[in-house]
């Protein structure tokens, strides 16, 4: 479906925090023969996106600060705004009417000064690489296991700086640092995380392979949509053939060997969210876990001498990571986007 047009050309209208004028941005020309603006999720047909105050690593920046960002600072992190869609652009003299519907929410990652800054161009290249990856490898699971990607849009800002803006669906708060082991960490929340990984494996054939404590923002949970999303595919690889054997959404008192469970990553995530206890299956008094193991070895007798249980391995939970509330995709998750004004 084609992107909406503004004045006869594809465009998106954005009102940045602290600005008085709405700016029109046009789609990037991608360095890929089969990708253009219509390769991405379609933006709302009318209206504009209004952003919240931006952050970098948990710190807010007012208009005076962020409009000079990347002109005076040296950083390889994009400036990130939350954003909400407003259905129509009000005139200078009228107040925008209140809407009874919850607005569509976005995360906007901005690379500034892309025309003549080495840092700005490098950041734009990172955004382009991410956008192409989402289109080539993740199109089948956007909005289900990963946030939707709306493409990269370019233009001159209200403060007269050329920028490239990556627009994505708002994914929610980091599960590991903000939700895990709190009252919001319900059984349904944990199942939502597993459901996202399962879709990533089954529909996209992607193994995420990024579960270190330094990546505590790679699992997001949106309490409005009641869905989990996965981000940061810097270590992912395609072509995964998921061989899951055991029921994924059950709670288990101990860990079976990886081949018995069928998928090492899904077993790791099950442990990570607390669906599988970090203990040996041999301690299960019901014998259910032993039955899974016995069945596997009956079907694969040649594997019995080679299979070990890694119950002594620790699963990174994200504890001890700096609490800057910023995910690996650069999106700060401290505030809810739907509070944008």
Automatic annotation (TrEMBL):
In this chain, the stretch annotated as Disordered covers 299-341
Ranges of biased composition (kind: Acidic residues): 304-341
The name this protein carries in UniProt is Protein kinase domain-containing protein
Q: Which organism is it from?
A: Dichomitus squalens
Taxonomic lineage is: Eukaryota, Fungi, Dikarya, Basidiomycota, Agaricomycotina
């Amino acid at each position: 479906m084609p992107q909406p047009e503004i004045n006869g050309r594809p465009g998106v209208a954005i009102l940045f925090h602290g600005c008085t004028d709405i700016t029109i941005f046009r789609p990037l020309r991608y360095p890929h023969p089969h990708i253009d603006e219509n390769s991405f999720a379609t933006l709302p047909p009318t209206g504009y996106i209004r952003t919240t105050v931006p952050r970098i690593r948990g710190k807010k920046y007012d208009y005076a600060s962020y409009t000079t960002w990347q002109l005076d600072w040296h950083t390889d992190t994009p400036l990130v705004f939350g954003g909400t869609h407003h259905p129509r652009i009000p005139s200078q003299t009228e107040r925008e009417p209140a809407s009874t519907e919850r607005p569509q929410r976005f995360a906007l990652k901005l690379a500034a000064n892309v025309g003549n800054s080495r840092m700005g161009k490098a950041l734009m290249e990172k955004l382009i690489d991410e956008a192409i990856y989402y289109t080539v490898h993740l199109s089948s699971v956007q909005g289900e296991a990963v946030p939707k990607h709306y493409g990269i849009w370019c233009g001159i800002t209200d403060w007269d700086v050329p920028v490239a803006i990556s627009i994505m669906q708002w994914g929610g708060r980091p599960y590991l640092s903000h939700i895990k082991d709190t009252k919001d960490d319900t059984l349904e929340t944990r199942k939502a995380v597993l459901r996202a990984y399962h879709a990533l494996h089954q529909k996209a054939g992607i193994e995420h392979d990024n579960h270190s404590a330094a990546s505590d923002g790679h699992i997001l949970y949106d309490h409005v949509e009641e869905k989990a999303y996965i981000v940061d595919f810097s270590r992912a690889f395609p072509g995964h053939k998921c061989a899951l054997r055991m029921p994924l959404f059950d709670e288990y008192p101990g860990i079976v060997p990886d081949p018995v469970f069928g998928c090492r990553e899904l077993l790791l995530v099950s442990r990570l969210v607390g669906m599988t206890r970090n203990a040996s299956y041999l301690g299960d008094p019901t014998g259910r876990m032993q039955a899974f193991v016995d069945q596997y070895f009956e079907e694969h007798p040649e594997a019995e001498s080679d299979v070990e249980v890694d119950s002594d391995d620790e699963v990174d939970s994200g504890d001890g990571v700096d609490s800057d509330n910023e995910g690996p995709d650069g999106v700060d998750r401290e505030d809810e986007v739907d509070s944008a004004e």
